[in-house]
Amino acid sequence: MEKNPAEAAHADTQPQVTPETKVGEIMTRNVLTTKADQAVVDIVQLMAKSRITGLPVVDDNNRLIGVVSESDIIGKAGDTVGDIMTHGSWTVGEETPLGEAAELLLRRRIRRLPVIRGDNELVGLVSRSDLISFFASHVWTCSWCGKGYRGFYAPSACNNCGGETFTIKVPDVI
Predict the structure, then answer these.
(1) How far is it, in rounded angstroms, from Cα 67 to Cα 85?
(2) On the CB side of 104, how many CA atoms lie within 13 Å of its CA?
(3) 3-class secondary structure for 83-115?
(4) HEC string for 117-174
(5) 98-120 as b/e: b if 16+ CB within 10 A
(6) Is domain 16-130 annotated with CATH 2.40.30.110?
(7) Which element (helix H / strand E) includes 62?
(8) Is residue 31 classed as helix, strand or coil in its secondary structure?
């Protein structure tokens, strides 16, 4: 299938995302946040309106102090975010490889990872939806037979032909 020139030019300008891509290259930068003294009723409205499942909780200096999620809202009683939030959070830095962040999200069964720098300053967020974007646009392709595999890492061998070398490709049709 031949791409038209506009599509080809667009594909050439897109950065190649791999498991070694740094979180800082793909993270969401303009993150909705909340403060510990915010009323829970207001956060429920914000989350529903924004169609999100959680928010980082920051102090007046934009330092991460915890997260509030739908589980906190459903399972805990309190008037303010500080009453119900989960103190502390798993975090990653901007230089963390995407593959490492993915493993943390999956192993810890969490939906989002705050991205911090320095003294816990919140600079972004990486979520499971970022991983879905990776899987939707990248396929490990066996160099021997061309069979494709989805995942952050290439398989050790192709189950079709036994090939052991793979390249990561962006499929023509997504």
Answers:
(1) 6
(2) 18
(3) HHCEECCCCEECCCEHHHHHHHHHHCCCCEEEE
(4) ECCCEEEEEEEHHHHHHHHHHCEEEECCCCCEECCCCCCCCCCCCCCCCEEEECCCCC
(5) bbebbebbeeeebbbbbbbeeeb
(6) no
(7) none
(8) coil
How far are the Cα atoms of 32, 57, 62 from residue 120, in angstroms, in the given order?
16, 12, 8
Residue 62: which region, alpha, beta or left (left: phi > 0; alpha: psi -120 to 50)?
Answer: left
**∠ CA 61-80-46 to the nearest 5 degrees?**
80
Q: What is the pLDDT of residues 128-172, one digit of tens each?
A: 887 777 677 778 899 999 999 887 778 999 999 999 998 887 666
H/E stretch holding 28: none
Whether pLDDT at 9 is above 60: no
Show me where the domains of the chain are located. Answer: 16-130, 138-169
